[in-house]
Write a structure and sequence with these properties.
By secondary structure, the protein is of the alpha+beta class. The protein contains seven helices and 13 strands. It has two domains: 163 residues, D-amino Acid Aminotransferase, Chain A, domain 1; 85 residues, no CATH class.
Length: 253
């Protein structure tokens, strides 16, 4: 009897089309850019919830993590699912190597990004459709996931959507999960494996903590003391925002 069980969403509406499986009722909150791509200014929040809460721009004390150049994905406790798009539905990965799946926690949902490396978005995006057959053998697909030629596939996780605990508690639990699953990885006997594929999105830490940001779990919190005002224009500015720009990293807020 398998110990893997889908827990997010708890009740799934599943459909199939052209040998692909979809989770029709999976809704994933997507990231928002921190800066306007044209002006470089901090974005204005115009979504429905932000309007209801009267929040017009990303405030101090929000949490942030790096937006990797990967594909948003969710492990529902049993399978890996792409987040879908505005015109498409979240699709279950057609094939995931068993050794990769064994590193993921059964019955616990993880939200994150499937990632190979910078500038490898196209190679990463095709992973969800690869399956053993005429085009690829099982060994060839395994070699892609393990990183025989390109860097290995990594699942960079940043939340546990199946948990309702406060964010800081979820981050501590996430640390424990990643550490404990490392024991499973160490016991796997798969030829060629080199890099533990379950990681936190922690790179922001090295780029920002020297500028005063504080790292907690996988994300950062910007100290309120960083908020300063330009008396001439009366427009709020943030040294934290400056630190984010200096880091050169795309950031989700």
């Amino acid at each position: 009897m398998s110990c893997y069980k889908a827990v997010y969403p708890e009740f799934q509406i599943i459909s199939e089309s052209d040998d692909k499986t979809y989770i029709d009722n999976l809704k994933i909150m997507t990231a928002q850019n921190l800066y306007d791509s044209k002006t470089g200014d901090t974005v204005k929040l115009t979504d429905k919830l932000s309007k209801q809460l009267n929040i017009t721009e990303p405030p101090i004390h929000w949490w942030a993590s790096e937006k990797w150049d990967g594909i948003r994905a969710l492990w529902d406790g049993e399978k890996i699912i792409s987040r879908g798009s505005g015109v498409g539905k979240p699709k279950v990965y057609t094939y995931v190597p068993e050794w990769f799946k064994m590193t993921l926690p059964p019955g616990v949902a993880l939200d994150g990004e499937i990632w190979i490396g910078r500038g490898m978005f196209q190679k990463t995006s095709r992973l969800s459709t690869l399956k053993p057959g005429k085009s690829y053998t099982e060994k060839q697909i395994n070699d892609i996931w393990v990183g025989t030629e390109d860097p290995p596939v990594i699942f960079k996780v940043f939340d546990i959507p199946s948990e309702s605990a406060p964010f800081e508690q979820r981050m501590r639990l996430l640390q424990t999960i990643v550490r404990d699953r490392k024991d499973c990885w160490d016991k796997l006997n798969y030829p060629g494996k080199q890099v533990y594929p379950l990681q936190f999105t922690e790179q922001v830490k090295e780029n920002l903590t020297n500028n005063g940001a504080q790292m907690i779990g996988a994300l950062i919190v910007i100290p309120a003391a960083f908020k300063v005002f330009n008396k001439l224009s009366r427009q709020p500015r943030s040294m934290a925002n400056k630190a984010l720009k200096m880091s050169g990293l795309p950031v989700r807020v």
